[in-house]
């Protein structure tokens, strides 16, 4: 790849999924006037500018200190700040704040004496590159040099170096006044060369302490920032009985205040090898890490970086392959002092890693690389993925300034969780000599990169958010389907990385679910543009042998007045698949083999299409039009050449789910001015329309027995829920600000776009009020779209966690990528939450007189009844134990005595004082769960009213199996699904499921055991059986319903309210 920009990018090595993962913004050379080399020593970067310090060779062969300022946007250069003392050298530089640059080094004040060298410290204003102050330190002929600099929170400056062969630390106030100096004598030619100030304000230095000409140690010291008192000193030497030279290179620290030191030692062999030391804040050694080259070759580190958050540390340097062949060596070490990974990068020349910088995801290494033509040194920038992975190197790029070049400094500015600006500085070593700088913009994964998709599919690679595409199978493996180009891909998370995506089929908008048999099922849209107009809903299944695409469509529109198939939504219940999609309404058109279509489509409206099919025999599909609306007259004409884009832009909305009773639920936005909700039970269809302003992104799903609705309307994510077997819905409330909502379990993810930023969030769904959002990322240049989430509940010894996948688009680089993050959940929220005390009763409410709101807190709103509050909840989940928690509150004149009961099996009495909030909890007895439902009562035993503020129910899996991926059920020979309502006033609905025909008897008895009614006596149908029985004429009271089938017998109490 060749790019001309004041130089040439000679080589670009990268993995296919991170194509264009970095962009060269600009490169610049500052040509010097002397006949000798010039050096770029250090580089800093802020939000607006890049600053490079260096030494410029000027006639007559002397060196001047200078700082060059470049504008980030264009790379334009301002006049540099320059200091000419004769023979000068910058060593350390810092950009601590928005206004100042701090530099240290040394200069020769008497050109006739090599000992006439002093430490020079300078502070420069960034705005106009003028000097604020400059100070010198050292005797006239003491040979003093400054090597390192740091600035504390108060603006005081610390400089370390050497003076007359001793180690020295200096502290200046912000105005250049020397506050103290501390000199440590430890043998001639000792020095401190690095200094750090931790986040707690502690001062540590590192350097070399001389024990003799051939015996030098790594030294680490802790000083008091107040007065320069030496608080602790450690010298590191691997073997007191062996003489060797230990060479320190860098020091860093973590958030806990631990200190890390990197260097090289010749101990143990004739060749050097890297060593990393970890100390606590009192300089007690915690561990030592040695890296020995497997081939016994010499290795030498040059730089160290430590993750503040994790304590992982990284070093870079060189590995000697031979005398004239070196490779860049990069090593990652875990917080316990073990090797995470090590990587080499190099050519046949003398390559070297000089400096590195890290982000939460990546390690950037700069140095030199012998590129093309051979034996030509180039600037090198490598990007490694921090976590151990199959492919550690994400990309590498080397830049040629047209001569012998090398980079010696790196600076990083993070603009977002995804984007970093990387500045590298160094020198051109062939005439004309120059100080050289490059600036890259780099994109990186937050946690784990999945794949790069074709930009033509922006931004819906993981969209639309109307159906499941991220699921776990029965073995717990995470699967993802997405679109790239006009192809559908499938990938799964294997160990620590995603598998190579495989092409499943040609098409768009795949839905993905897992059946109880462990197979993966997908439906997707296949819309071919002019001239074929092949419009089909296709079906695929994956077992151990791979994906199988059926030879026939599940549905097609090419021979009807429907045009095109939008993003389908897919649900599974037992062995039946259910789907819904939106289609354009237009004139009839022939099949593709009957001739080509005219060039204009008169779009007349849009239709909602619903259907179902057997997973084992999808050819026996059936579908129907549930609803449609017409466009205003005349119809909207559309060029058929852009047909696929029409489908992509307009047919994206309906969402489908199936509850535990097999009732189908569908949300559709229609024309966008009302939310349309459909319930389909057998052949009965009910429709409810809810007005809105600008509705989009509907998504419907089931969470156990709860049916949850999400959609966007006027900038807010709206939410309401229903319950299996009940038509009542909760009241609508806004739970987040943003769009593209998608949920799994009790968690929601969504995006938010404004004029500047695109943001990605997740959070747990509360019983009332807004979600407390957790931000995953917010960026100016990137666009977050269509996040998917999968909730992993606690299972046995595995803690709860969230899997989140999303598409990300960078308009500046025309990149479209899919990313993944796993988020541990320390305290999973309750399975179900009910906040009582709203105008619309919660859907499970059977009886209440009304509600009261006495304050802003959730517990201060409650349901009340003059005698007894009653709530009825189906709980269909097998192999589950439930813990229930309930809250009382009231402000009546006197205290209340309340009885909380479940199914007349569990009873708990409690006095509740006025203004007192009381929360109690207990495990629901197994005897209450045998019929897959519970009836909760709160009865007034003493006082004025019965009250209840809220209920929370937590679930705990205790055994069994089944799919973890979605809505498939577990087949059983016979299963009494539910009896409802219970308590009842006159009508009893009974549902049971049977895997085959068998004799079933259902009888009703009174409390004395007398047979009251024979409700059912005969053979059951396969699958769901439903009976509606009237209790009219029977006195109110307690009855017992007995159900008998082959190998099954169950008795359940029924309460008949008069």
From TrEMBL:
Source species, domain of life: Bacteria
Domain Secretion system C-terminal sorting: 979-1055
Name used for this protein in its record: T9SS type A sorting domain-containing protein
InterPro entries recorded: 6-blade_b-propeller_TolB-like, Secre_tail
PANTHER family listed in its UniProt record: ENDOGLUCANASE, LIPOPROTEIN
NCBIfam families from the UniProt entry: Por_Secre_tail (TIGR04183)
Gene3D superfamilies: TolB, C-terminal domain
Keywords: Membrane, Transmembrane, Transmembrane helix
Record field: transmembrane: 7-26
Pfam families for the chain: Por_Secre_tail (PF18962)
């Amino acid at each position: 790849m060749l790019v001309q920009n004041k130089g040439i990018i000679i080589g670009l090595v990268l993995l296919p999924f991170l194509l264009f993962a970095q962009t060269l913004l600009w490169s610049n050379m500052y040509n010097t006037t002397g006949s000798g080399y010039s050096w770029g020593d250090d580089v800093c970067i802020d939000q607006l500018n890049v600053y490079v310090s260096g030494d410029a060779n000027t006639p007559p062969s002397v060196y001047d200190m200078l700082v060059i300022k470049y504008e980030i946007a264009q790379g334009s250069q301002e006049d540099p700040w320059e200091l000419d003392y004769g023979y000068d050298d910058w060593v350390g530089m810092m950009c601590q704040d928005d206004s100042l640059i701090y530099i240290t080094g040394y200069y020769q004040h008497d050109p006739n004496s090599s000992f006439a060298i002093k430490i020079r410290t300078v502070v420069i204003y960034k705005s106009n590159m003028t000097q604020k102050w400059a100070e010198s330190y050292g005797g006239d002929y003491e040979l003093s040099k400054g090597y390192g600099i740091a600035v504390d929170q108060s603006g005081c400056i610390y400089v370390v170096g050497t003076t007359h062969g001793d180690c020295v630390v200096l502290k200046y106030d912000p105005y250049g006044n020397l506050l103290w100096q501390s000199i440590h004598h430890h043998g001639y030619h000792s020095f401190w060369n690095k200094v750090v100030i931790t986040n707690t304000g502690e001062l540590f230095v590192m350097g070399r302490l001389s024990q003799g000409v051939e015996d030098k140690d790594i030294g680490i010291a802790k000083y008091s920032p107040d007065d320069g008192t030496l608080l602790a000193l450690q010298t590191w030497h691997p073997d007191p009985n062996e003489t060797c030279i230990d060479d320190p290179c860098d020091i860093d620290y973590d958030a806990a205040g631990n200190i890390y030191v990197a260097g090289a030692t010749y101990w143990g062999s004739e060749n050097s090898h890297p060593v990393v030391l970890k100390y606590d804040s009192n300089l007690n050694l915690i561990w030592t890490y040695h890296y020995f080259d497997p081939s016994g070759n010499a290795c030498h580190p040059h730089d160290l970086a430590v993750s503040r958050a994790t304590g992982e540390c990284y070093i870079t340097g060189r590995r000697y392959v031979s005398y004239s062949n070196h490779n860049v060596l990069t090593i990652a070490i875990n917080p316990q002092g073990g090797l995470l990974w090590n990587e080499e990068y190099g050519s046949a020349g003398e390559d070297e890693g000089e400096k590195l910088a890290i982000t939460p995801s990546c390690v950037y290494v700069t140095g030199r690389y012998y590129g093309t033509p051979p034996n030509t040194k180039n600037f090198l920038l490598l990007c490694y993925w921090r976590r151990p992975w199959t492919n550690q190197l994400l990309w590498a790029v080397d830049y040629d300034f047209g001569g012998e070049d090398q980079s010696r400094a790196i600076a990083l500015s993070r603009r977002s969780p995804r984007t970093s600006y990387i500045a590298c500085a160094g020198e051109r070593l062939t005439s004309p000599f120059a100080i050289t700088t490059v600036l890259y913009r780099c994109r990186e994964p937050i946690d784990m990169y999945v794949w790069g998709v074709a930009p033509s599919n922006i931004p819906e690679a993981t969209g639309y958010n109307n159906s499941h595409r991220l699921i776990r199978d029965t073995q717990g493996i995470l699967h993802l389907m997405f679109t790239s180009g006009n192809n559908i891909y499938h990938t799964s998370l294997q160990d620590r990385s995603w598998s190579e995506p495989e092409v499943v089929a040609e098409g768009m908008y795949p839905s993905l679910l897992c059946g109880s048999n462990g197979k993966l099922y997908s439906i997707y849209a296949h819309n071919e543009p002019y001239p074929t107009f092949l419009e089909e809903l296709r079906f695929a299944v994956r077992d151990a042998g791979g994906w199988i695409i059926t030879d026939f469509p599940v549905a097609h529109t090419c021979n009807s007045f429907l045009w095109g198939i939008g993003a389908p939504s897919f649900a599974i219940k037992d062995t039946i698949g259910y789907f819904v999609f939106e289609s354009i309404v237009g004139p009839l058109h022939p099949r593709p083999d009957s001739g080509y279509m005219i060039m204009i489509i008169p779009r007349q409206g849009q239709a909602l299409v619903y259907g179902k099919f057997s997973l084992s025999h999808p050819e026996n599909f059936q579908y129907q039009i549930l609803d449609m609306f017409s466009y205003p007259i005349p119809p909207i004409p559309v060029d058929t050449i852009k047909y696929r884009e029409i489908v992509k832009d307009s047919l994206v909305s309906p969402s489908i789910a199936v509850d535990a009773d097999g009732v189908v639920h569908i949300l559709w936005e229609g024309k966008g001015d009302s939310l349309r909700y459909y319930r389909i039970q057998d052949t009965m269809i009910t429709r409810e329309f809810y007005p809105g302003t600008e509705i989009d992104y509907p998504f419907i799903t089931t969470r156990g027995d709860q049916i949850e609705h999400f959609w966007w309307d006027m900038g807010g994510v709206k939410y309401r829920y229903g319950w299996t077997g009940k038509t009542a819905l909760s009241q609508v409330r806004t739970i987040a600000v943003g769009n593209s909502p998608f949920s799994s379990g009790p968690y929601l993810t969504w995006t938010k776009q404004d004029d500047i930023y695109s943001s990605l969030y997740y959070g747990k769904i509360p019983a009332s009020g807004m979600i407390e959002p957790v931000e995953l990322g917010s960026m100016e240049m990137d666009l977050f779209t269509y996040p998917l989430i999968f909730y992993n509940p606690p299972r046995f010894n595995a803690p709860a966690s969230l899997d989140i996948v999303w598409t990300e688009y960078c308009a500046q680089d025309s990149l479209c990528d899919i990313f993944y993050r796993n988020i541990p959940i320390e305290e999973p929220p309750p399975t179900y939450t009910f906040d009582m005390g709203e105008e619309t009763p919660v859907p499970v409410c059977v009886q209440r007189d009304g509600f009261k709101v006495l304050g802003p807190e959730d517990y201060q709103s409650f349901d009340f009844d003059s005698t007894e509050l009653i709530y009825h909840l189906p709980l269909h989940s097998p192999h589950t134990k439930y813990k229930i928690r309930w809250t009382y509150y009231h402000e009546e004149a006197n205290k209340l005595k309340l009885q909380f009961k479940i199914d007349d099996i569990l009873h708990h009495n409690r006095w509740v004082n006025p203004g007192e909030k009381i929360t109690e909890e207990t495990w629901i007895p197994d005897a209450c769960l045998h019929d897959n439902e519970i009836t909760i009562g709160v009865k007034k035993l003493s006082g004025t009213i019965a009250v209840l503020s809220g209920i929370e129910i937590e679930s705990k899996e205790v055994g069994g199996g089944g799919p973890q991926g979605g809505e498939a059920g577990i087949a059983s020979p016979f299963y009494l699904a539910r009896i409802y309502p219970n308590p009842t006033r006159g009508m009893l609905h009974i549902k049971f499921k049977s895997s085959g025909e068998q004799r079933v008897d259902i009888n009703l008895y009174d409390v004395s055991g007398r047979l009251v009614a024979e409700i059912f006596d005969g053979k059951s149908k396969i699958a769901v059986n439903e009976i509606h029985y009237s209790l009219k004429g029977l006195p109110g009271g307690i009855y017992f319903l007995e159900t008998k089938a082959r190998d099954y017998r169950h008795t359940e109490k029924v309460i008949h309210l008069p």
